[in-house]
Amino acid sequence: MSEIQSIPDSVMTTDLALARLAELDTNTVSDALDFLEIEGATWGIVPLWNCPKITGRASTIQLGPKSDTKPTVHLISPVIDAVSSHNRILVIAGGREGISCWGDILANAAKGRGIRGSVIDGLSRDIEGSESIGYPVYGRGVTMISARNRVIQLSSGQPVRFAGIEVHEDDYVIADRCGTVFIAANRIQEVLELAEKIAQRQNGMVQAVRRGRSVAEVMHDSAFDAINTGNKNG
Questions:
Q1: CB of 145 closer than 8 Å to CB of 175
Q2: CA-wise closest residue to 139 among 115, 175, 173
Q3: pLDDT at position 228, please?
Q4: Close Cβ partners of 168 (under 8 Å, ≥ 6 residues apart)
Q5: What is the C-alpha to C-alpha distance for residues 75 and 152, in angstroms, rounded to an integer?
Q6: Backbone angles phi, psi at 23, to 5 degrees
Q7: Rounded CA gap, 85 and 188, in Å?
Q8: DSSP code, position 156
Q9: Per residue in 64-116, pLDDT tens?
Q10: Is 134 helix (H, G, I), strand (E, B) or coil?
Q11: Which helix (H) or strand (E) covers residue 157, if one does?
Q12: 63, 211, 210, 51: which is closest to 134 by C-alpha?
C-alpha cells in the first residue's frame, strides 16, 4: 500500500493566508498597513487591461539599463522557467521610462507555468497579447518600444525597490483596480487579522448609511479609531 504524502505546514499556511487575502481589497489592506505603520502600498501600479484582482507570493526581478560591461541574461525568462509553485506573482523592478519590460511571449510562458500575474514598476508592450490569454499585468503604462539592447536582468530572488517599497522574495502581493500593495511575509498574519476587522467595520458603516444614519456620524474619526483598538504597533 502506498504511503499518503502529507502537505507541509508551510504550504497550508500560505494557501490559507492567500485565501484570506483574496477576500480583501487593496484599500482595506492599505488601511491595515497604515494602522500598523508598515510600508507596502504603492501608487501608479494599475491594471494594464481590465484584468482581475490577483494575490500571490512575490518572485522578485531587478532590471537595469544595458551596458557593455554587464553580462546579459535573457530578460525574465529564467525566472519563469524556474517557477514550480502555483502561487507566484512576478514583481519586476527597474523599468526604464518609455521602454517595455514585458510582452506577449513572456505572458504566454508565464501562464503556461501557472504564474498568477506580473506587477511591473515600468511599462509593457503587446498588452493585447496578455489580455487575449487572460494573463493579468499591472504596471505604469504601455509602450511599443522593445527592451532589446536597452534593458537587462540584473538579479532575481533578491530584495528590490519597487515604486518606493522594499519587496523581498516571498512577500505577499495583492493588486486590483485601485493599485498594488505588498505585505512582508513576517507580518502577514497581523495584517490579515486587522484588515478583516476593518472590512467588517467598513461594511457595517456602509449599511448604516444605507439605513439613513448620518454620514457625518458614521464617518467620525472615533469610528475609525475603534477599528484598531488594542492593535496599534508600538
A1: no
A2: 175
A3: 60
A4: 58, 60, 159, 184, 185
A5: 6
A6: -80, -5
A7: 19
A8: E
A9: 998 776 556 678 999 999 999 999 999 999 998 999 999 999 999 999 999 99
A10: coil
A11: none
A12: 51
User: Given the C-alpha cell 502600498, which residue does it identify?
Assistant: 41
For 18, phi and psi rounded to 5 degrees? -70, -35
Query: In the numeric block, which cell numbers belong to residue 16?
Result: 490559507
Burial class (CB in 10 A: 0-12, 13-18, 19+), 206: exposed
Could you tell me the three cell numbers for 147? 527592451
Name the 3-class secondary structure at 132.
helix
The answer to whether 38 touches 191, Cβ cutoff 8 Å, is yes
C-alpha cell recorded at residue 144: 511599443
Q: Is 2 exposed, middle or buried (0-12, 13-18, 19+ CB in 10 A)?
A: exposed
Instruction: Give bridge partners of residue 225 from the DSSP assignment.
Output: none
| 61 phi and psi angles, rounded to 5 deg | -140, 130
**In the chain, which residues have pLDDT < 50?**
1-9, 230-234
**What pLDDT does residue 149 have?**
86
Output the pLDDT for position 106: 97
What whole-number distance in Å separates Cα of residue 41 and Cα of residue 46? 12
> Burial level of 232, CB count in 10 A (0-12/13-18/19+)?
exposed
Residues linked to residue 155 through DSSP beta bridges, in sequence order? 62
CA distances from 157 to 11, 109, 160, 167 (A): 19, 19, 9, 10
